[in-house]
Write a structure and sequence with these properties.
It contains 26 helices and five strands. The chain is mostly helical. Among the domains are: 52 residues; 129 residues, no CATH class; 198 residues, 3-Layer(aba) Sandwich (Rossmann fold); 97 residues, Helicase, Ruva Protein, domain 3 (Orthogonal Bundle). The relative contact order is 0.05. It comes from Temnothorax curvispinosus.
């Protein structure tokens, strides 16, 4: 027995030594300072949440205890007064007691049945989609966002595959079709040489690369030998008939234009329509028959077609350079062969005046300054600033369906908020989307958005900037006060804005209170702002905007009638923001009130919309938020919201005076669009 105990002790001692000697396999968790700070912040937030929950629970239990104690004390006082005879309990007949109980039960059951019926109708309308729920399931939208992010993550992978396929196909085409293309193009040009030499004994001028090179030869846009001879004979006849230089300089009589046989005016076709037709034809030819499956690979036929076209142009440029050198050698040989002829041998040459048509380029004072430095300068001066992100879909407004007939009959009509959205889209957003769009679309350099105070002009300006992701240059008088004093510095500021706006296009040059630089009379309290300091520079800046620059001069105005005629000439388009109408207000109230859970789904919105016509949407939103405060939302379950509560708050709005509305109506008739409409009618 003792031997077994000794063996056991030895084994235990050996195991202890092994445990001490063997290193621990448990790895220590090492945290970075950021992870440790995040973990401690999370624990602190959990402790704060637990303490807040305990505080709320303790207060609620104390409140219930106080209520229970007050009830017990009231019952005790009542029984005490009854016992001492201070209160004599009123004895009620049992029949009357039973009738009272039946009346109470009947009223309660009616109330409960009406409440159950309302809940049943609400559930039925909710199932049929007839009501607007306060909570909407975002599961579908979240899934759609996840799919969008997943596809966005796959775009670089497919882009790399497409670039590799383009590179491989380009290498293959260079090996397979490159030499053959060069031979074919060379043969075409050689044939053109032979035709001219056989007909006239010399060669024509090779077209310049700027005008297309040998593409003009292949497409037949160069003159033939017969046309060259006819033109030469005509010039000789004119030279003989006109002996004096003054007669040579006399202009040719203009050919009378062919009058159209169709009476009336016909709208000419715009460049935008031709681009749309080309895009439609391209879609029908290349994309309409293809299946858009997620597992679809790149389309090699389209890649090959595009690369063949690019390869042909590339090979043609190389062959054109070789053929020009060969033509020079042939012309020198011809001149050498005809050096001893009696008549002077001439070879057609390129017109030397072609390259002299360009205008002199104005010297750029800021050429040596980096654009990044100019951008930083404007940023420090707070001319370049940020703006809240608001999209066009957030703009509330309904269309006026009766304006369609009025427009056809050339009757007076007023736009509504929904039509303002379309005008902003056509004049301000769509032309600035891309450089190609700005080149094709009708050029709109400056737009003025005007309306009553609080109508939503600033929101529209933020919408325009947000939709196109524009860089905003704020050139309002309060921003420029005390900055860039003197003519040289003012001109330098305009040059900086012009240069930076073109580099970081699309750009919006924003002018708040746009009528101030052209005021007829400046108020004494605003003279320190010097509104008219940049008026002439703004005109030069606006006139310098060309097609493809993606720049828009946007101004806001509340009192455009106080400006001079130069204000009207400065702006290409005027957009008036009208007052709110019934349809817009009905939609807005529905969208605004249905977000609150306790608000009745059948609240009388029509009455609110009818009484709120002409009140800005922003004021209505603030009024509703003020009425439906947190304390009021708690009581919505047993004290439903009444339209009168909102109406009392909304009626505090100070309506604009009649003179302000009439002056805006008068100014609207003076705008260019109103003049054109009057001429057509």
């Amino acid at each position: 027995m003792s031997e077994m105990e000794d063996q056991t002790l030895k084994t235990r001692a050996a195991r202890r030594r092994m445990r001490i000697m063997q290193p621990s396999k448990v790895e220590l968790i090492r945290e970075s300072p950021e992870e440790k700070a995040a973990r401690e912040a999370k624990l602190a937030a959990e402790r704060i949440m637990r303490s807040a929950i305990l505080l709320i629970q303790s207060h609620e239990r104390a409140r219930k205890g106080r209520c229970y104690g007050a009830d017990v004390k009231r019952i005790y006082d009542y029984n005490k007064k009854v016992r001492f005879g201070e209160i004599i309990p009123r004895k009620i007949d049992r029949i009357r007691y039973i009738k009272s109980a039946v009346t109470i039960q009947r009223a309660w059951r009616r109330y409960a049945s009406r409440k159950a019926m309302r809940k049943r109708i609400a559930r039925l309308e909710d199932a049929l989609g007839m009501t607007i729920p306060s909570w909407q399931c975002r599961k579908t939208r979240t899934k759609d966002d996840d799919n969008f992010q997943r596809r966005r993550a796959l775009m670089p992978v497919f882009d790399a595959h497409t670039k590799k396929a383009i590179s491989d196909e380009r290498t293959r085409l260079l090996k397979v079709r490159g030499p053959g293309l060069m031979e074919d193009i060379t043969d075409e040009i050689h044939e053109w040489f032979v035709v001219w030499y056989n007909a006239l004994g010399h060669y024509d001028v090779f077209p310049a690369a700027d005008f297309g090179g040998s593409v003009l030869i292949v497409t037949g846009q160069t003159s033939t030998p017969q046309e060259y001879l006819m033109e030469k004979l005509e010039k000789e006849k004119q030279a003989k008939a006109k002996g004096r230089r003054a007669e040579k300089m006399a202009p040719r009589p203009k050919a009378e234009p062919i009058k159209s046989q169709v009476p009336g005016w016909k709208m000419p076709q715009t460049d935008a329509l031709s681009c749309l037709e080309e895009a439609n034809i391209d879609f029908i030819r290349n994309w309409s028959f293809r299946s858009e499956k997620p597992s679809e690979r790149e389309y090699l036929d389209l890649i090959t077609e595009k690369l063949c076209y690019e390869l042909q142009l590339e090979m043609r440029e190389i062959v054109d350079d070789v053929m020009r050198a060969e033509l020079d050698v042939l012309n020198k040989a011809l001149l050498k062969d005809h050096a001893y002829d009696k008549e002077k041998f001439t070879i057609p040459t390129m017109d030397k005046n072609i390259d002299k048509t360009g205008t002199k380029r104005k010297k750029d004072i800021l050429e040596d300054v980096a654009v990044e430095d100019l951008f930083s300068e404007l940023l420090r001066a707070k001319i370049i600033r940020n703006y809240p992100t608001i999209f066009l879909r957030d703009w509330f407004g309904d269309l006026s369906y009766q304006n369609y007939e009025a427009r056809r009959e050339f009757r007076d009509f007023k736009h509504r908020l929904g039509e303002v959205k379309q005008l902003v889209l056509e004049y301000c957003i769509l032309p600035l989307i891309s450089k190609g769009t700005h080149q094709v679309a009708p050029l709109v350099r400056s737009v003025c958005i005007y309306g009553l105070p609080g109508a939503g002009k600033t929101s529209l300006a933020n919408v325009i900037c947000s939709e196109i992701g524009a860089l905003l240059f704020d050139v309002s008088a309060p921003v420029l006060t005390g900055k860039y004093m003197g003519k040289e510095k003012q001109q330098r500021l305009i040059d900086i804005i012009s240069k930076v706006a073109r580099v970081y296009a699309p750009s919006i040059i924003f002018l708040d209170a746009g009528e101030k630089p052209w005021l007829k009379k400046v108020p004494p309290e605003e003279k320190y702002l010097q509104h008219k300091r940049f008026a002439n520079y703004f005109v030069k800046l606006m006139k310098g905007i060309k097609s493809g620059d993606q720049i828009l001069f946007l101004s806001l105005s509340e009192e455009p009638q106080k400006a001079t005629a130069g204000f009207n000439k400065f702006h290409d388009k005027f957009i008036r923001v009208p007052t709110t109408d019934y349809n817009t207000l009905y939609m807005y109230y529905k969208n605004l009130l249905m977000k609150y859970h306790g608000v009745d789904r059948d609240i009388d919105v029509s009455c609110l919309a009818k009484m709120s016509v002409g009140i800005p949407l922003n004021f209505i939103r603030q009024a509703v938020e003020k009425v439906l405060s947190l304390r009021r939302r708690i009581t919505l379950k047993f004290n439903p919201l009444s339209p009168i509560e909102i109406m009392n708050e909304i009626l505090t709005y100070q309506y604009p005076t009649t003179e302000m509305v009439e002056s805006l109506d008068k100014f609207e008739k003076l705008t260019l669009s109103a003049r054109r409409k009057t001429k057509v009618s």
